[in-house]
Amino acid sequence: MNPEKTPFSFLLLASLFVVLACGEVQTGREIKMGHALVTSHPVHKAMVFLAERVEEKSNGQLRIKVYPNQQLGTERELLELLQIGSLGMTKVSAAALEGFAPTMQVFGMPYLFRDDAHQKKVLDGPIGRQLLLDPEEFWLRGLCYYDGGKRSFYTKDKPIESPEDLQGLKVRVMESNMASNMVRSMGGSPTPVAYGELYSALQQGIVDAAENNPPSLFTSKHYEVCKFYSIDEHTVLPDVVLISTKVWNLLSEEEKTWVQEAADESSEYQYKIWAESTEESLRELEKAGVQISYPDKALFREGVSEMYEQMEAEQPEIYQLIKAIQLVN
Description:
5-stranded mixed sheet; 4-stranded mixed sheet
């Protein structure tokens, strides 16, 4: 968010929020954490776990209160609130960070990781740690990653067995240039829609399809509208737990340790329950009558090869990051 383009009234209101947030942190009372997911989602459960661990580690001196289901705003709005310090923490998809921290674009590259082990090694290693800190110049500090699953297409009228099946379809995407470029390169028409508005957008025909991981498809109940789920696993986007640098800098070193340790522990917990939730969600989707198919991924890889060529030509610094990730054994 560019503060120079922000209305004065909004900045005034934000400054009042900052004062309140500072008082809460200094007296050790509460940090507010907002996100866009429903309470049944495994990512929400991990954030609740994080909050519980902070309270335990601090003996109640520091608390985190979690506000789910877009109570405090969409992912973009939550990020903007973090930037001005009126919200302490959030969890967003790495894709939502593209406009705030350019290096986060790398996670939006389709078929970037060879497998789960490769992704985990990258995220836990020096590349992943540096990417968490890159947004600091935009007043956002990454604490840890959560498993965001593998994203695949789900549709109302037909399965997606090849990129050709996306021709003429309006496909919901996040507010992400990478996601839009991916859908466009496969022949679809990318249509940004806020996650909380997607169910009605599918019902009303504003979009014909969307893409997400199994737990999100199940917990959102989008399967009530979309009966075809094509597991092409085109992107593996991690979620990122963030804290406002304005709030982080107000914490003592001991408080920072409590928060970082709790975040790391919640990440381990989240990876475990995510794997369980993915298996359970696929079983429940089948029970609900969703037709699950596994198209040939090679067809989709071919469809997005131009994205890598375009990245090399237009953003060589991101392309070098891609190459570094690919070299991780």
